């Protein structure tokens, strides 16, 4: 498409550009709706589990009881990490960012998979199950070592969320907190062609293997404009400190044209449906918490009210999933340094599902770039340059 100047029209950030057809996820940004394989996110949040949601994303339909039990058994069987991976994490933790540690460990998993370079559908499904299971163990091990404690073996008697919390904290979790984490994993499991999913697909489109593809996704997820936004939002709440400082902080930030992390979304032009679900959890937490968590929940709710009054109804800038996530994770007992790696735990089934779908009709992703520099410059040998 040509602009008036004769130059091609550049869609910055590829905004509004379609890259493929997909039956995995529908994001209706105008009406604030989100669907996984046709199921509204509200229905999955209320009725499903993370394991069932993983099955749905990977296979395209909800499982029967027998299918679910088989899938769940396979996930549990893949939780344990090779000793080398644990040693690698031990060497890197507290020296590198937690996302960098996770990226290295997940990439290295390919060395322990005999099917790593088998591109058949069945092998890719098996690799997806391994990645979902082992990514959770990797992130829990990072957190465990970060706290100066020895890593723990997984407990196959526990579901995915409860086992993660057990491997992180060393004790079987409170059922309510485990269920809350399960909800957070469901809400973050998939979101169409977001930045990390797109980068996963770019790498996979070269016919690189699944491990290489998702490693690209993890690198992309690290940035504060994507997966790191929940951590940035919580840092803001820490800076506000006293809830009574909230309005003054927001006023000054907006006056200085500073970005309020956790607000606004490229796709949603109304309230993010995931944020609505998390807000309900936040309201519950507010009545049952003390100390920092109480402050964070109060700050979050007061900031949300003010931002909606100032920007929501006028400019369409609404809370997104990241804004309320930090206080919820803090209540559950997740350290802030693990927020973004935990996002990778959630999003792994979505990345794998998109990659398997895209490979069914693969085309190398190779966009164009409009050159605006000089051409035909005369080369001057270095001895004559001034």
Q: How would you characterize the overall build of this protein?
A:
This protein has two domains: 25-224 and 335-359, Citrate Synthase, domain 1 (Orthogonal Bundle), CATH 1.10.580.10; 229-332, Cytochrome P450-Terp, domain 2 (Cytochrome p450-Terp, domain 2, Orthogonal Bundle). The protein is mostly helical and 386 residues long. The chain is globular. It has helices spanning 41-47, 50-59, 65-77, 83-92, 98-108, 121-146, 160-169, 175-187, 195-205, 210-221, 229-240, 246-255, 273-286, 291-315, 321-332, 339-359, and strands spanning 25-28, 33-36, 39-40. The longest helix has 26 residues, at 121-146. The protein is built from 16 helices and three strands. Helix 13 (273-286) packs parallel to helix 15 (321-332). A hairpin with a 4-residue loop joins strand 1 (25-28) and strand 2 (33-36). The chain has a three-stranded antiparallel β-sheet.
Tertiary shape: globular
CATH topology of the largest domain: Citrate Synthase, domain 1
What radius of gyration results from the CA coordinates? 22 Å
Task: Encode the helix/strand succession as letters.
Answer: EEEHHHHHHHHHHHHHHHH
Number of domains: 2
Q: Approximately what portion of the residues adopt beta-strand conformation?
A: under 5%
CATH superfamily of the largest domain: Citrate Synthase, domain 1
Contiguous helical run count: 16
Main β-sheet, spatial strand arrangement: 1-2-3
| The top level CATH class name of the largest domain | Mainly Alpha
Percentage of residues in helical conformation: 55-70%
The helix-and-strand class reads: mainly alpha
Give the mean pLDDT: 93
For the largest beta-sheet, the strand count, sense and barrel status come to:
3 strands, antiparallel
Proper CATH architecture of the largest domain? Orthogonal Bundle
The N- and C-terminal alpha carbons lie at a distance of 42 Å
What oligomeric state do these chains adopt?
Answer: single chain
Give the tally of β-strands.
3
Q: What low-confidence regions span 5 or more consecutive residues with pLDDT below 50?
A: none
């Amino acid at each position: 498409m040509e602009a008036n100047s004769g130059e091609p029209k550049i869609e910055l950030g590829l905004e509004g550009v379609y890259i493929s057809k997909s039956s995995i996820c529908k994001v209706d940004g105008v009406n604030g709706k989100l669907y996984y394989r046709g199921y509204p996110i509200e229905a999955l949040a209320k009725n499903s589990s993370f394991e069932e949601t993983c099955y749905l994303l990977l296979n395209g339909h909800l499982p029967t009881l027998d299918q679910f039990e088989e899938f769940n058994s396979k996930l549990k069987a893949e939780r344990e990490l090779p000793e080398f991976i644990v040693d690698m994490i031990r060497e890197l933790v507290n020296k590198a960012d937690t996302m960098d540690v996770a990226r290295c460990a997940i990439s290295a998993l390919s060395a322990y998979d005999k099917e790593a370079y088998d591109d058949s559908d069945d092998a890719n499904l098996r690799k997806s199950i391994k990645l979902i299971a082992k990514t959770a163990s990797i992130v829990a091990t990072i957190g465990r070592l970060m706290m100066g404690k020895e890593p723990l073996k997984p407990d196959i008697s526990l579901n995915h969320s409860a086992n993660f919390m057990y491997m992180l904290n060393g004790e079987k979790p409170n059922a309510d907190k485990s269920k809350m984490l399960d909800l957070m994993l469901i809400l973050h499991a998939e979101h169409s062609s977001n930045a990390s999913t797109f980068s996963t697909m770019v790498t996979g489109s070269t016919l690189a293997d699944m491990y290489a593809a998702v490693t690209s996704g993890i690198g992309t997820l690290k940035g504060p404009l994507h997966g790191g936004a929940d951590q940035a939002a919580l840092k803001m709440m820490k800076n506000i400190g006293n809830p009574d400082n909230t309005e003054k902080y927001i006023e000054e930030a907006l006056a200085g044209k500073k970005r309020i992390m956790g607000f606004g979304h490229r796709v949603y032009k109304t309230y993010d449906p995931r944020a609505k679900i998390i807000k309900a959890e936040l309201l519950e937490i507010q009545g049952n918490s003390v100390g920092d968590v109480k402050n964070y929940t109060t700050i979050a709710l007061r900031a949300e009210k003010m931002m909606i009054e100032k920007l929501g109804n006028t400019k369409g800038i609404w809370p997104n999933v990241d804004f309320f996530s930090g206080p919820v994770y803090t209540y559950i007992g997740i350290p802030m340094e693990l927020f973004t790696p935990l996002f990778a735990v959630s999003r792994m089934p979505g990345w794998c599902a998109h990659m398997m779908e895209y490979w069914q009709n693969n085309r190398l992703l190779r966009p164009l770039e409009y050159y605006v520099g000089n051409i035909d410059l005369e080369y001057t040998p270095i001895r004559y340059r001034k």
